[in-house]
Specification:
single chain, 385 residues, FAD/NAD(P)-binding domain, seven-stranded mixed beta sheet, binds flavin-adenine dinucleotide
């Protein structure tokens, strides 16, 4: 099997794919359009499936050491009453790890550090990738071109490569929700590691980090494109009556650190994750709403599965067929479940529907939250090397 791969996109999915390919003997170039990889982004939670994928890629230990286990927390109502508790220790007994929380910038840095120097090229915007004959793929950039035996399209939810490879696909659509988030400037006293609070068409959540700071996010039903001059003030007013520590988290945040994004997802599933010798991976393949905290975890699963298939199948074509068969049904099912979780969670706004949901959650048996998490997090990676 020939051995040079180009990965388009240096996000979590692209970097993980590059690590997997390097570990299995490929010569890899990652092309990232951003001129510099600035340390931005809020936080991220990783479930057992994501952590196991990181273990398979050889970076699990480093990520665990930099992440905070999320042992305590759950889902609350705006008055602070608990709707469901999450028992991280029980999850750890089931899966070997609780959910962990880590700043995105730290995770990104650890993934970059696992790559050979010179492998990641920034300021490289890819415009197309096409079969060039003899089993090679020609990757065109704004200022040049290169050839590879395999291309991994990890160029995110707005994937240019996906649009070219699947011109009949409608592409990503707006989910109806917009998210504002940040990391606090300094440590905040928190009674729990992790919380989500659901009001009518709104969610506020936090994930605590090892250094005592926390990421928070506010998700709101909203038309797309709405932006605020001072988002922090808008949030202070919107969540003024919500329970502690929400006001304290907002007070511990610098106004210019708040990120605001509309959430897009692929509602129409792709008919394939591969085209010729090009594999789509991560959000480019299955962008989903963040309601299950599974988008990056699925990208990490993709990365390990792809590298393992290429390491064991006799041809690139056979490996890509296996990658498609193993990854498409699972990731698309998780994406459907995430959309459903959003509809029944953050997006639910009718007062009666909210009351019925909250009552059902309060009455649910204590193990229900763990069982819901296990449904998606209990995944075992293939052996890589
Ligand atoms: C609010 C929110 C919270 C989330 N929370 C979680 C969570 O807790 N846990 C979890 O598992 N997931 C979470 N997710 C999902 C997760 O962030 C994504 O699924 C994941 O980051 C996708 O990674 P990716 O590498 O596929 O795409 P991206 O991170 O979008 O990376 C794509 C990269 O490709 C580059 N690129 C794009 N086009 C080109 C081009 N033409 N040429 C070169 N480079 C290009 C981009 O600059 C970018 O760096 C969350 C998502 C959101 C929106």
């Amino acid at each position: 099997m020939s051995k040079n791969a180009v990965v388009v996109g240096g996000g979590i999915g692209g970097l993980a794919a590059a690590i997997g390919l390097c570990r299995t003997g490929w010569e890899v170039t990652v092309l990232e359009r951003a001129p510099v990889l600035a340390d931005v982004g809020a936080g991220i939670s990783l479930h057992a499936n994501g952590i196991r994928a990181l273990d398979a890629l050889g970076v699990g230990e480093e990520v665990r050491a930099a992440a905070r286990p999320q042992y305590t927390g759950g889902t609350r109502a705006p008055d602070g009453g608990w709707l469901a508790r999450m028992d991280g220790a029980a999850l750890e007994r089931e899966l070997g790890t609780p959910i962990v929380g880590i700043p995105r910038a730290v995770l990104h840095r650890l993934l970059r550090a696992a790559l050979p120097s010179g492998c990641l090229v920034t300021g490289a915007e890819v415009t197309s990738a096409e079969q060039s004959g003899r089993g090679r793929v020609r990757v065109s950039l704004e200022d040049g071109a290169l050839e590879a035996d395999l291309v991994v399209a990890a160029d995110g939810v707005g994937s240019r490569l996906r649009a070219r490879l699947f011109p009949g696909h409608p592409g990503p659509v707006y989910s109806g929700s917009t998210v504002l988030r940040a990391i606090t400037e300094h440590p905040v006293e928190l009674a729990t590691d992790f919380e989500l609070t659901w009001g009518k068409g709104a969610e506020f959540g936090h994930i605590a980090f090892t250094d005592g700071r926390a990421e928070w996010h506010a998700v709101l039903n909203s038309p797309p494109g709405v932006r605020h001059g001072n988002a922090l003030d808008v949030l202070r007013r919107r969540f003024a009556a919500w329970h502690d520590p929400i006001p304290a988290l907002l007070d511990a945040t610098r106004a210019d650190s708040v990120l605001h994004h509309d959430i897009h997802e692929l509602v129409t599933p792709l008919p394939a994750f591969t085209a010729g010798r090009i594999a789509l991976l991560g959000d480019a393949a299955h962008a989903m709403t963040p309601n299950l905290g599974q988008g990056a975890c699925q990208a990490l699963e993709d990365a390990v599965t792809l590298a393992a298939a290429l390491a064991t199948e006799r041809t690139v074509e056979a490996a890509l067929a296996r990658y498609d068969a193993e990854r498409r049904p699972r990731s698309q099912a998780v994406a459907r479940a995430a959309r459903q979780a959003g509809r029944m969670g953050q997006q639910l706004s009718h007062p009666w529907a909210v009351a019925v949901r909250n009552t059902a959650l309060r009455l649910a048996p204590s193990g229900a939250t763990i069982r819901a998490i296990l449904r998606h997090a209990d995944w075992t990676p293939p052996r890589l090397v």
